Amino acid sequence: MSGFQLKQQSQIPIGIQGKKLLLHLILLVVTVASFFPFYWLIVMATNETSDIFSYPPKLTLGRHLLENAGNVFKNIQFFAAFGNTLFIAVVETTLVLFFCSLAGFTFAKFTFRGRNILFIVLLVTMMIPSQLSAVPSFVLMARLGWVGSFKALIIPGMVTAFGVFWMRQYAESSVPGELVDAGRIDGCGHLRLYWHVALPIMRPALAFLGIFSFIHAWNDYMWPLIILNDPAKYTLQVALAQLDNVYGADYGMLMAGTLMATVPLIVIFLLGSRHFIANIATGALKE
User: Fold this and answer.
1) Which member of 34, 51, 205, 209 has the lowest number of beta carbons within 10 Å of its beta carbon?
2) Rounded to whole angstroms, how far apart are CA atoms 107 and 175?
3) Which pLDDT tens digit goes with each residue over 149-182?
């Protein structure tokens, strides 16, 4: 009997180790599968078009990255488009963070007439595809005289329904009502409550919204294509689309341009992700 118990006890750690090993193998496979498209982008950016379409596929890095990048610089105004996109993305993201967090905090912690109706209208706008508003938006920009200017790209996107919804939900659950009441007793107005009380607490939500808004502004293609008519003001996505022509495409060059356009997004994600990841970990420990 004692020998059976010892045998049973010795099998328990082995079973646990097997489950852990299986879990790590699954995570490894998922990680490799998630990283492979980016690796394939690098492979294509470093090879010629003939190597990309070779069979069996060439999965090793080539030696043509500098050549492909040089072709990108020759065919489009890459650095001008990069600067235009960076300016638009930074300004738009900054405005989104300010206005959406202010509106979300107001919806969450202040009571005013028509609050619920306005919030429902906000949710309804999230269900409308952006393509449906392209024509009315262009007519409005034309009447304002903003066609061809960066104002037509920045101002319509400085407040988003998702951003207000996201910040409202976060402020509702994370900003204590007692803390807001204490600030009111101390004589804080609306803006002081927002700036000194709510904003430090909502930092993880701001980090996520900042990353989300920056990526959206950086990758936006349809609206800049519609509204911009000067090649010197093209954003990066519009400029990269000019590399593809009807007579044939140099896919090595296209992928090199795409790779260079992707690097800033990776940097932004690495800089901002630690804030909301740390907050998720802290919340899990509290639970």
Assistant:
1) 34
2) 12
3) 999 999 999 999 999 999 999 999 889 989 999 9
187 phi/psi in degrees, rounded to 5:
95, 15
- Side-chain half-sphere of 169: how many Cα atoms within 13 Å? 8
pTM: 0.85
Amino acid at 200: P
Alpha-carbon distance 220 to 114, whole Å? 33
| Residue 72 to residue 254: CA distance in whole angstroms | 8
The segments of the chain whose pLDDT lies below 50 read 1, 4, 6-12, 246, 281-287
Q: Where are the domains of the chain?
A: 76-242
Q: Where are the beta strands (DSSP E) in the chain?
A: none
Q: Which CATH number fits domain 76-242: 3.40.50.1450, 1.10.1370.40, 1.10.3810.10, 1.10.3720.10?
A: 1.10.3720.10
* Model confidence pLDDT, tens digit, residues 109-143: 998 899 999 999 998 988 888 888 889 999 999 99
Q: Using alpha carbons, select from 217, 208, 118, 112 the residue that is nearest to residue 167.
A: 208
Residue bearing tokens 């090793």? 60
Distance between CA 52 and CA 255 in Å, rounded?
11
Q: Which residues pair with 245 in a beta bridge?
A: 248
